[in-house]
Specification:
Length: about 240
């Protein structure tokens, strides 16, 4: 058979070694997932042993005091860094901890948290070293996430003088991390959900998490002094 036979489909040209490599990759991925299932069983058994009745009580416990709006970054787990157990905080996460009024996901979370769960406090938490923030200060790459990061680029544009005054690239990124949290807090406060009688009782906090020391810092003073950014300012 000629190697130039154009009737043979692409996948049939894979060598035996390539097929074996693909099979090994699939097996490895499946094995890694099964490892997580095993760890889940260990965690459940340990939790029940240390706190008898924990899961029975958890079934009836969905009255968290807090709504946490944070970044999707795997290094910033909401419950762990504030020492709360499952059932004690309602969590919404996305890239760069954004609260965009056109994002039905975030708006629905706000509505459910305030009007169904009756949370008392909302925490918007960003973190230094955020990849979304770093991407916002870099040229657009033509990737899908650029559409989402545009919201952060608008903030960087509005606060350009403040950011440019920082002494280094790292300092600029840290400052934008803080300013982004502040603006998202304003977005939460300006949401129609928080203009209802129930919403007006909710306190909104802006925090920043430092991966370098594991500590949270309150940006309350900066949040309280910031006004909403008018759409015309983004042009």
């Amino acid at each position: 058979m000629s190697s130039t036979n154009s009737g043979m489909s692409g996948p049939q040209w894979f060598s035996t070694s390539e097929r074996l490599l693909g099979a090994r990759s699939t097996i490895t991925a499946v094995s890694a997932a099964h490892d997580l299932l095993a760890k889940n069983r260990e965690w459940a058994a340990r939790t029940e042993r240390e706190n008898p009745g924990f899961f029975t009580n958890l079934v009836h416990q969905q009255r968290p005091r807090y709504l946490w709006i944070g970044c999707s970054d795997s290094r910033v787990p909401a419950n762990q860094i504030v020492g709360l157990r499952p059932g004690e905080v309602f969590v919404h996460r996305n890239v760069a901890n954004l609260v965009v009024h056109s994002d039905l996901n975030a708006v629905s979370v706000l509505d459910f948290a305030v009007n169904a769960l009756e949370v008392e406090e909302i925490i918007v938490c960003g973190h230094y070293g955020c990849g979304g923030i770093e991407a916002a200060l870099a040229p657009e790459s033509g990737r899908t996430y650029d559409h989402w990061i545009r919201h952060v680029r608008d903030i960087a544009k509005f606060y350009r003088e403040d950011i440019d005054s920082q002494p280094s690239r790292a300092a600029k990124e840290r400052r934008l991390c803080e300013l982004n949290v502040v603006v998202q807090c304003v977005h939460v406060r300006e949401s129609p959900v928080l203009r209802t009688p129930a919403g007006r009782k909710v306190k909104v906090h802006g925090w920043i998490y430092d991966l370098a020391d594991g500590l949270l810092r309150d940006l309350g003073a900066l949040v309280d002094s910031t006004r909403p950014i008018a759409p015309s300012c983004m042009d």
